Amino acid sequence: MSSVWGKNIKVSVFGESHGNGIGVVIDGFPAGLAYNEEEILAYMKRRAPGGRFATKRSEPDIPRVLSGIFGGYTTGAPICAVIENTSQRSSDYDLTVPRPSHADLPAVLKYSGFADLRGGGHYSGRLTAPLVFAGALAVTALKNKGIHVGAHLSSVGDDDYGCFDPMKVDAELLERMKEKELPIIDTGAWERFADKIETVRKDGDSVGGIIECAVVGVPVGEGGHMFESVEGRLASILFGISGIKGVEFGRGFDISRGLGSEMNDGYASCEDRIVPISNNCGGIAGGMTTGAPIVFRVAMKPTPSIAKEQDSVNIHTGENVKLNIGGRHDPCIALRAVPVVECAAALAIFDILLDPPAVIE
Amino acid sequence: MSSVWGKNIKVSVFGESHGNGIGVVIDGFPAGLAYNEEEILAYMKRRAPGGRFATKRSEPDIPRVLSGIFGGYTTGAPICAVIENTSQRSSDYDLTVPRPSHADLPAVLKYSGFADLRGGGHYSGRLTAPLVFAGALAVTALKNKGIHVGAHLSSVGDDDYGCFDPMKVDAELLERMKEKELPIIDTGAWERFADKIETVRKDGDSVGGIIECAVVGVPVGEGGHMFESVEGRLASILFGISGIKGVEFGRGFDISRGLGSEMNDGYASCEDRIVPISNNCGGIAGGMTTGAPIVFRVAMKPTPSIAKEQDSVNIHTGENVKLNIGGRHDPCIALRAVPVVECAAALAIFDILLDPPAVIE
Amino acid sequence: MSSVWGKNIKVSVFGESHGNGIGVVIDGFPAGLAYNEEEILAYMKRRAPGGRFATKRSEPDIPRVLSGIFGGYTTGAPICAVIENTSQRSSDYDLTVPRPSHADLPAVLKYSGFADLRGGGHYSGRLTAPLVFAGALAVTALKNKGIHVGAHLSSVGDDDYGCFDPMKVDAELLERMKEKELPIIDTGAWERFADKIETVRKDGDSVGGIIECAVVGVPVGEGGHMFESVEGRLASILFGISGIKGVEFGRGFDISRGLGSEMNDGYASCEDRIVPISNNCGGIAGGMTTGAPIVFRVAMKPTPSIAKEQDSVNIHTGENVKLNIGGRHDPCIALRAVPVVECAAALAIFDILLDPPAVIE
Amino acid sequence: MSSVWGKNIKVSVFGESHGNGIGVVIDGFPAGLAYNEEEILAYMKRRAPGGRFATKRSEPDIPRVLSGIFGGYTTGAPICAVIENTSQRSSDYDLTVPRPSHADLPAVLKYSGFADLRGGGHYSGRLTAPLVFAGALAVTALKNKGIHVGAHLSSVGDDDYGCFDPMKVDAELLERMKEKELPIIDTGAWERFADKIETVRKDGDSVGGIIECAVVGVPVGEGGHMFESVEGRLASILFGISGIKGVEFGRGFDISRGLGSEMNDGYASCEDRIVPISNNCGGIAGGMTTGAPIVFRVAMKPTPSIAKEQDSVNIHTGENVKLNIGGRHDPCIALRAVPVVECAAALAIFDILLDPPAVIE
Q1: What is the ipTM of this complex?
Q2: Residues of B with CB below 8 A from D242's CB?
Q3: Hey, which end of chain C has fewer CB within 10 Å, N or C?
C-alpha cells in the first residue's frame, strides 16, 4: 500500500505539505513502552528545518498524540500523531510547470490532475516528519533492548568525511553523533562542509550526499529467508524516503569489485561464541544478522528544488519554458535526512525483531 | 513472509538445495497469457549451471507445471511449477563448520539446528531457479504489452564493461543481450572477462560483479507514494536474490556526488508529450515512472564458496579451524545472476502494473 | 494488523473512547471521487447516539479531514479524518471490575494493564464512527457505478420484521431504508419495536438483533478463489464490528437445513444474459458474485452494558462482586449498527472491485 | 490473494481437480515440529472420499513432501506438499452448461473462458485436501501446547444431533470425535443419519449440514483489536472452504434473540484466576479469547452436484436446457467437511498464537 509500511507493525503516513495536517498511525506497536516525549521531540528537531545548514523556513513540528499513549505508556492500540500545518495556503492551485526531478509530472498525469501537489503534496520531504515520530518510538524501544541505531553524513558531493569502522562502531559513537549539529566523523571536515554548503547556497544550487547508518546490538539470526532478508526489509522502507536513489550493505558496491578471498567474513571463537572476524557483509549473511554491526549506506540525491534556471514545459500550452523556483531550499537535504534514515532503520529492525519465533515453542 | 513476495501477485518459493524438489507458486497471475514454454526454458537455461564460464555441475532444471496452465494459457488459478532434485543425497548431515559469508552460521543458530542446510538448503542460489520460472512468465506478459526487460554484466571485479545509455537503451538492445553467452556491452572485453574468470578459477577464488538492468516501455506514472515507490518494490525483490548487497537507481551513488543543476532531469515538449531530457534518476521520480527507461544496478558479491583456505570454527568443539570447501563453484556468480535480476525486475514491474487504477473509474 | 483492514485499500482505524480523538486513515483510495460531505455526515448521523431509540448521550461526531481531499475531490493520497473527543475525562483510571461480555478482562490481561480501557478504549463501539466515515466514501463511490448498499433491522430479540426478497431487492428500496428513523421493512411493526425498546430500557436490560444487508448492481464474477471469496472478505471486516457474533450469506444457516434440489440456484436465459432463477446463495457462488443481489445477515449481540446487577470479580482482591453499570446505554445497539454494517460492506465491495483484472490486458 | 491465507504463516493452496496435481506451500511455519506423518494421513483419510456415507470415488490422496521437513522435523523453510492427480483426464474440455450453485458460470465469465473448470477446477472441494495437510500440521503443533481442536456434525438437514456444552467441552471429547466414522454427539442418531443419507442418495439429491467446532486450551487474551479479532480471522479462512455459507460464534444468531441479562457472560473467581461463568460468546469477547472454549458453527450447503434434473442454459447457444449431472457425488458434503473445518480452525488459531507479543519485552 502506498504509504503503509511494515509486517508486524503497520506504519501509515498521511498528509500533504500544504494540507490541514500530516501525521502517522502506528498499528501493532506493543504496549508498555514508556513514552519519552523529550527524546521524540529531539529526533524531530534534528530533522526539522531551520538549522544553520538547512533551509531557513520555520516549521514548529510539534506532534500531537491522539491515541495509543495513556498514562505515559504505549497501550497496544494504534498510536496516532498529528502535526498541524499552521501556515495554511490558498486552495487555489494549478500545477502549470512541473519541476524537474520532482514528483510533479508523473503525479499530475497519474492522478489526472486530482493530486494536491502544493509544495510537493504527499510527495514532499515534509512527510518524513511523521516517519521520524514513528521511528523515534522504535529507537527508544530498541535502546531499551540494548540496540542502538545511529547515522552520519559520510560524504557530500565529492567530499568524503569518513565511514564507520564496521567492526568497531558502537553505541557510544552512535549516540555521540546524535548530539552533533553536523553529524560527521571527521571533525576536521566541519569547515569544508560549511564552505561547500555556503558555495552551493550562493549558487542557487544543491548537492547530494551519502548517509551511513549502523545498528549495533542486534542478536545473531534475525531476519530471514529470501524476501524477509534484513537487506530487503530495510531497503523497502528506506526507498520510501524521498530522494534516496541507492542502498548498499556492508561494502556494498565495492564488494562486487573484490575477490571472495578478500570479501568473505571468516569466523573465530570468542568467549564461547562464534563471531565474524571481519564485516564486509554489513552484519548480514544469508539475509540474517551475523551479530556484527549492521552497516549500510544510502545515496541521497541533491535537493531537486534549486534556484538555477531549469528546462521544463508548460503542461497546458505544451511550450518549452525556463523555470525558476523561488523560495528557500535546503542546499543539502542529505544532512536533514540523517535522522530520517535512522528512524526508518529503527522501524525496520524493530519490525524484524517482532517476527514470530523461528523455532516452535 | 519469508519466501513470499508481491502485492498483487504472490510469488511463493519453496525447496532446499538437496531436498526432494524446489519450486514456486504464483498466485494472482491473470488468466489468458499464452504459456511460452520455450521462452521460459530459455530463461532457465541462461541461469542454469554448466556454461563455459560457470560451474561444471549439471542440473537439468526442467520445471514441471502442476497447475494454473491449461490448454496453453494461464487460467487465473495459482500456477505451481516444481523442479525435482534428481540427485538425492543422504539425509545424514551435520553442519560442523559454517562456511564464511554463507547463511550457515546464522541459520543454524536461528533454527536451533533444525534447518536443512545441505548445499545451502533454502538459502542456496539454486532457489533462484523457481524465481526465474515465475519471472519468465512476467517477462512474456510484459513483452506482450511492449515492455522489455534486459540486463547485462556491467563490471566484474575492477573491470568495467560499460553501462547502458539511460536515454537510448531500447528493446532491441535488451533482447540482443539475451542471445549472448556473455551479456556484456563492450564486446571487446570478452577476452578480458575470460581471462579474469580463468585466473580466478585457477586460484580457487571468486569475484564479484555489477549487473545493470533496464526496463523500457513502462508508461509514465506507474508506482506510487512512499513505500509503493518503484525503487522500493524493485529493491524488495532484488534483495531476495542471494548475494546482492547493493541496489542503485539511475546514477545512484554517483548522483549523491553531484549538484542539483547537474543531476536534475529537465523536461521538453516532444510530439504532444512532455519527456525528460536526461535520465539521471533511472526513469523514476517521486517513486513513479517518468516514461524514460528504468535503469538500475545491483552489486553482487563474489561467490562465497571458494577453494582457498578460510577461517572458521567447529561449532561442536568451539575450536578455530581452517576450512577448505571442495566441489566446483562458480567463479563469478554475477554472470548467472543476470537473468535472475531480469526476472525479479519483471515480476516487480508486472506487479506494479497490476495496481488498482489511480483515478476512480 | 489489528485495526488495519483491506487488500487494495488499507483502512486504519485509531483512537480510544476517552482519548484525544478517534479517526481513520484510508490509504490507496483512488483520486477523483467528488467529496460529498453532506452524504458522509448523513451516514455518521445515522450511527450517532441521540435518536429516539438510542442512548441519550450526545456526541457531535464531526469528522475533520486532514488530508487526501483537495478542491472537492479525493486526491489519491491517504485520506485522514479525525473526530476530536470533546468531553475529555480524567486520565486517572483503574479497571477494577471487568464488565461481563466486554473486552475489559481479556484486554487488561493481554496488555498487562497498559491498555486504555476508559469507556471501552479502542474496543468501544465508538470506533465504528471512523469506520462509517471511510465506508460512506465507499458508498458514494459505489453509487457512482450504479451499485447500492443498504441494510435494515431484520429482527430484534424474538420479533421478526421481515427480510429482503433476495431476487427483488433493488436500489430504490435500499435507499428508502436510509431515510427512515427506524429501518425496518414491516412498517406495521414500528410500534412493536418501540414497545420492546421501552420495556428493555425500563428493565435496565438490552436486546440483540439481526441486520440484513444487500448490495445490488455488482457485476458477475467479482471476488475470487478460496480466501478471496466475497464471503470471506465481507466477513473479515464485519467481524471487526464490535458485537457481531454471526454472519450468513443468502439463506445461510437455513441452507444447511435443505436439500440440494431446493437450494441450488438454477439459471435461465434473459436478454442475452444468463441469470440465476433463484438466489438462495446470497448472490455468491464459488466465492464470486453471480449477478443477483448480494444478501447477508449479521447477528448482533445485546449491548453488554446493562443496568441490571451482574456477576464479576474485583481483579485486585480476587473477590466475587456484584456489578452495577451506571450511565445511559443503548437498549438495542443493533439499530445503530445498521449504517455501520452498510459501511463495512461498502468498503469490502469497493476493495473487491479494485482487484486486478482477472484476464491479462 | 486468492488462495493465500494467513498473517504470520502463509498458506498457499494450488491445483485443479483434473490437473497434474494439487498441493500447498506453508511459509513461515516454525522449525522444530516433529513431523507426524501418521497423524497427517489420518486427517487426510477422514476428509478423503470413499467412506460408507460419502462418494464412492477413490482418491488415494497421499501427499508427497517436497520441502521444509528434514530429519523428521520442520526446518523453518517453506513446506511444500504435493498430491499428484493420478487419474489424468483429457485436456479437451468445454464448459457448455454451467452447473447450478457451482463456480462454473461466474468463473467462466470472470476468466473469459481461460479457467480450467474440469471437475470444478481450482474451485473443487478437492482443494480442501492440501488445506487439511497444512491444518493437520497446525493441529499437531497446537496439541503439543495442550490445545485441542475438534468438530462434529451438529445437524443434517432438519435433523439435530446435539451441540457441545460450551462450558464443558474438553480435549477428551474432541479427540474421541476424531475416532468415529460418524462424528456426532447423539450416538442414538446414527441410524437416523444413515437413513437420511440413504434416502437422499436414492433420490439423487443432497442435503446440507451444520458443523460445530471447538478449540480448548487457548490462553486468555489471544486475538486482538477490530480486524484481528479471533472471529474475523477464523471466518476469513472458514469462508475459503467451498460450500460454507454461514459462521457463528458462541450462541451466534441465537444471541441476537436474547437479552443482555441472559447473554452476558459474568465472571467468578476460581483458583486465583477470573473465569467466565457462562460461555454464550463462544470463548471470545472484544475479539479476544476469554479462556473458555472457543466454539463456533458453520453452515454447509447441500452438495450442489445432484442427479436430479436442473435448470441451466447452454452458454454457447443461450438456450434454456435441462441439466442432468452424472457421476457419484457426496449426498452430504458436510460430513467430509468436519476435518476440513478443524484444520482451518487449527491454522487460524496457530496463526493467532504466532502474533507478536502484546507487551514490549
Answers
A1: 0.97
A2: none
A3: C
